[in-house]
Amino acid sequence: MESVRSVALGCLVGAGSALEPAGQAGISHLLEHMLFRGTERHRSEEIDQIFDAMGSELDAETDRESTSLATRVLDRHLPAALDVVGEMLWRPAMESLDAEKEVVLEEIAAYEDDPQALIFDVLGETIFGSHPLGRPVIGSAKTVSAIDERDLRAYHAERYVPGNVVIAAAGSVDHDELVQMVQALAPSPAPDAAARPQMSKPARGEREVRFVAKPTEQYHLCLGGPGIARSDERRYALRVLDGILGGGPSSRLFQQVRERRGLAYSVFSFSSLSATAGEIGVYVGTRPENLAETVQTIADELARTLEDPADQGELDRARENVKGRMVLALESTGARMARLAACELYGLPLLSIDETIERVDAIDVEQLRELAVELLDPTKLSVAAIGPDEAIFERALAPLQAVAA
């Protein structure tokens, strides 16, 4: 990218919660933390000092299928940044495990105290049951407490190998020079290296309802179900449909639930994609006295979407929104880098902006209707909620029960 003086650098590892052994839930996330505890050449404090001196930050994240390390530095600092990141990736010291486990346990406790975050894990468990896609990325206090240094080293040796890692960069960078730097840092692939871990496809179960009692001021409620796989060409139509239903201020749910009735501060629809399946859903947070009317309004909008997913104005606006967000995001070096890394790790075609725009422009109302019937039928959506009184929640579900009947 000729106009910038910085480089966004990222490492994406095929190690996430949906690819973990059942008894080691949370090990990917714990290992992500341990990468920052120092390497064979750099203590933890030194890593912080190196990136501070560059005027940069080093971020990390674990999701269902990957762990990422990412930073953005001035182009002249790229060799030094890559040297440290490579050390963290390939040669972590695995020191102070007990202290870092306590940090993660505090993170789990904080997460469980936040119902607006926790509800999405409750929904995942409700939809996917015992399938790995239903596990919290962060793991549980029980599984994290049981992980020891031997477990971490074995998992690192299995997953943090060249064939399961993508290194990507965007900005003021030369590809051939980057390749040479990476080759100098990375270990040679083992001749008998294991294949990249694969995720099984979850079976579509029956509609489930789950309630978690907590002394909250609001009911945090999600309706959702399985979505489509990452490679499904309908992913562009799903983004458009999501935008119309609840993806922004002009969406149907936002207008009906918040703007016209004042029933909630936060209401939106969402979708996520994975290798074998996805997840779609609707979230709302509302007070007890508004819960029944809120559920009725959402049920009405879902039913309407099956019959009438979009008028021409909504379709045009949603398509332009998707295209605009995509193009504006790709003016960022970080977004470009992340897109490169994800396409490579997940085996997706790296389409040009024009090719993607063509796919979005080709979406019509009938495609949206077919997708809505498959994914958003209220009779098939599971329900998860966190709140103070299960009886109030159960009474509020009557509109959905009526739809299902």
SSE sequence, one letter per element: EHHEEHHHHHEHEEHHEEHHHHHEHH
What is the average per-residue confidence, as pLDDT, rounded to a whole number?
Answer: 94
Tally of helical runs: 17
First and last CA, distance: 56 Å
The largest sheet is: 5 strands, mixed
Structural class call reads alpha+beta
The Cα radius of gyration reads 23 Å
Strand content: 15-25%
Q: Rough shape?
A: globular
In spatial order, strands of the major sheet run 5-9-6-8-7
The amount of helix comes to 40-55%
Low-confidence stretches: none
Task: Give me the count of strands.
Answer: 9
Looking at how many chains there are and whether they match, the oligomeric state comes to: single chain
What keywords describe this structure?
single chain; 405 residues; alpha+beta; five-stranded mixed sheet; four-stranded antiparallel sheet; 17 helices; globular
Put the structure in a nutshell:
The protein is of the alpha+beta class and 405 residues long. The protein contains 17 helices and 9 strands. It starts with 5 loop residues before the first strand and ends with a helix.
